[in-house]
Amino acid sequence: MKLYCLVLTLSVILLAEFSVKAEVGKSLKSSQFKLNSKFEKKSNDKQLEVIAGAAVSTKPANVEKAGSLVQLLIGAGGIYSAFLFYGLYQEAIFHFKTKDGTQFKQTWFLQALEALANTLVGYIGLKVTGGTQGLSQETFAMAGIAQVCAKAFTSSALANGVSFPIVTLAKSGKMVPVMVGALLLGNAKYSLKNYISVLSIVAGTVLVSMGNKKSDGKASSPVGLAFIAASLACDGWNGGLQERMKVVNKSMGVKAKAYDLMFWTNLYMAATALVVAAFSGELQSGLNFCIKNPAVFKMIGKFAACSAFGQSFIFYTINNFDSLVCTTVTTTRKVFSVLLSIIINGHRLDPVGWAGLGLATAGIVSEIQDKSSHGAPVPSAKKDDKKAK
């Protein structure tokens, strides 16, 4: 079954990746054809010849970073294997019960251990690849706080009875707070397709929640759902901070590398989680729980390791391909995480739930396609057309 799932997921990744490349390639050929036609009509204009020739020869970043099939298999396979097991261990940790029925609920303690594992791997990567000097530590600190809060609230939703499929699908709708923040704080504009995609994910998640029949027969608690809402709000906050980080670092004349982001963000995440865990008493209670229940500590160790190595494979994929390929892999992974959880952990869906899963999946696929069309070089070609005139 595990081998079948792996082959299936890799096949979907390759299909999604090749469809993205095909769409980008078509857009590139179209823009080149337009520029070549304009060049032929005005071949006597030497200035136009130089401008049009430069425009045609300019390759967009997402075409330059083509990567190889082997690199795609390594990156995508690493992301899928790491985060599929990441989801399974995360769910198992919060489903664990002692003989007296006590469950693990120390979410900030868990986030501290996960962030420390990511910091360690990020530090090793930083030493191997070389770090960037002069980065804005204030923006890293704020982004770290927002991100660890989002992850801790997600874990709190699981600890308070919300099923893993609902949490994962709801988190796929993080574009909602991002869009709201951009509309309120900026002058962002979204297409009708953007709104339909997001609404499909949200509506699908609601239907899955309605059609989800957990093995214990309990419904998702209002407290758990409130934690999901808080997590999504932190995702929106973090999205704005990430954009601010780019602007601030650019104004300082520096650009963060992959392992700069991994190390510094997780360092501040770990510091925040440790402080909250210490003051809330979770640090001591979490340690005591793990000492009394070594099985949980082993699961937490594997969970943290999957997170650290999964992030490394994400950066590997970004370095060898464009961000769209990485987004395609990480987004489709969520769908398979849900399916894997349903199969392995006994989550039962009625027809309404399956319809919701299909609707949410369609919204996710539509979001990927939208990013694919945005990644095509058509806008830059139009800009060069204007210069040529």
Tell me, rounded to a whole number, the average pLDDT: 74
Q: Name the helicity range.
A: over 70%
Structural class: mainly alpha
Number of helices: 16
The SSE string, one letter per element, is HHHHHHHHHEHHHHHEHH
Please give the number of β-strands: 2
* Distance from first to last alpha carbon: 60 Å
Describe the overall structure.
By secondary structure, this protein is mainly α. It is built from 16 helices and two strands. It has helices spanning 2-41, 46-57, 61-64, 69-95, 107-129, 137-159, 164-172, 175-185, 192-211, 222-251, 258-280, 282-292, 294-320, 323-345, 351-375, 378-388, and strands spanning 212-213, 348-349. It has a two-stranded antiparallel sheet with strand order 1-2. The N and C termini lie far apart (60 Å).
Helix/strand layout:
Layout: H1 2-41, H2 46-57, H3 61-64, H4 69-95, H5 107-129, H6 137-159, H7 164-172, H8 175-185, H9 192-211, E1 212-213, H10 222-251, H11 258-280, H12 282-292, H13 294-320, H14 323-345, E2 348-349, H15 351-375, H16 378-388
Antiparallel strand pairs: 1-2
